[in-house]
Design brief:
Elements (H helix, E strand, L loop, with lengths): L1 H30 L3 H13 L2 H26 L7 H18 L4 H30 L3 H24 L18 H6 L8 H17 L2 H11 L1 H6 L4 H27 L12 H11 L4 H25 L4 H15 L1 H12 L5
């Protein structure tokens, strides 16, 4: 039974990706675009040149971390919709330390990343406290705090960190995750060392949830709060802690942008979308550490490959958005995928 369950966890996302690409191709055909040429350009844009491979890996870094933030909360029975806001405050904290602190790189980079994690954890703990103390649903509070984070970070930049161009200054070189070696290796892409931090974070999430007493308590509270309380587990503490850890992952995702991709922060007119993409990445990855990494690779590749698809095949990038939406739809409607697989296994007609 356990083997069948694990098999389904692997097959459902795989089949969902296939169905998303298939129906996306049909939509392209109906719309007058050549699907074979479009998908060839898409995959060329992901794997064809070292520049595109570098950009795909760079795109993965914040997606992995935002996916981990959503997955961690979900594993403990919570739904963190506030990853976008936690990412923004983490981004600002990392850039602040990167600009105003003088230290060698071996200290400066970990300090800036740690500041981002702490900022995200503090921001995430607020909905946790409201959930634990007043039973306020975390979906409502995290959505509201996204907007508070957006306008608060804008106001802080505008009043205390503004440089020409509606942005902050660049972080010091000692705080930058960028590397001339990686840029030369990938034909001047924006690839940076953040991918290492993201993979280490995935290992930490797995170890914390499945190899520690704390992880057991967090998962137990997620499964059944009443039974956990009866067993002597402090439910309120674990709810707050879960949201804080989830927020820390999201905050570090922000540091990937602030210290790596951009190395500054702008006054944002709207959300980056990375935090919301993390929900889809976690869903596609079945809320597991390795699944989140694979989901981030797929989403990062589709987003980068879409640009090449538009340039070479004339297909609008919005059609890749439709493909991504279809993939998420089929993962969410896993019952449909299960039904299709059962029909095939029984030799019946679909």
């Amino acid at each position: 039974m356990q083997n069948n369950t694990n098999k389904m966890k692997f097959l459902v996302p795989l089949i969902s990706v296939f169905l998303g690409l298939l129906i996306g191709g049909i939509i392209m055909l109906i719309s007058g675009y050549p699907p074979i040429e479009a998908y060839a350009a898409l995959f060329e844009g992901i794997f064809g040149e070292s520049y595109y491979r570098g950009e795909t890996i760079r795109q993965m870094s914040p997606l992995i971390l935002s996916g981990l933030a959503v997955a961690f909360a979900f594993r403990t029975g919570l739904f963190n919709i506030g990853v976008e806001g936690q990412l923004l405050v983490g981004w600002l904290a990392a850039v602040y330390v990167g600009i105003f602190v003088d230290a060698p790189a071996i200290i400066h980079i970990p300090l800036a990343v740690l500041a981002a994690g702490v900022a995200g954890a503090l921001w995430g703990s607020v909905p946790g406290i409201l959930k634990a103390r007043f039973k306020v649903h975390e979906v409502i509070t995290t959505i509201m705090m996204n907007y508070i984070a957006l306008y608060s970070t804008n106001e802080i930049i505008r009043n205390f960190m503004l440089a020409p161009g509606e942005r902050t200054e660049n972080v010091k070189e000692s705080a930058s995750l960028a590397s001339p070696f990686l840029q030369e290796l990938t034909d001047n892409s924006t690839l940076h060392f953040g991918i290492i931090i993201a993979i280490v974070a995935a290992v930490i999430m797995w170890f914390l949830l499945w190899r520690t007493t704390l992880g057991y308590e967090l998962r137990a509270v997620g499964f059944n709060q009443h039974a956990s309380q009866y067993a002597g587990i402090n439910v309120s503490k674990n709810i707050v802690l879960s949201m804080a850890i989830s927020g820390a992952f999201a905050g570090i995702a922000g540091s990937m942008e602030g210290l790596g991709t951009y190395q500054y922060m702008t006054i944002n007119a709207g959300f980056t979308g990375v935090g919301f993409d993390g929900i889809a990445v976690a869903l596609l990855g079945a809320n597991s550490a390795i699944g989140v990494i694979l989901g981030a690779a797929l989403f990062g590749g589709l987003k980068i490959g879409a640009l090449n698809m538009q340039a070479m095949a004339g297909v609008p990038t919005e059609l890749v958005g439709i493909v991504i939406a279809l993939i998420i739809f089929f993962v969410a409607c896993s019952y449909l995928v299960h039904w299709l697989m059962n029909r095939v296994n029984r030799g019946g007609k679909i």
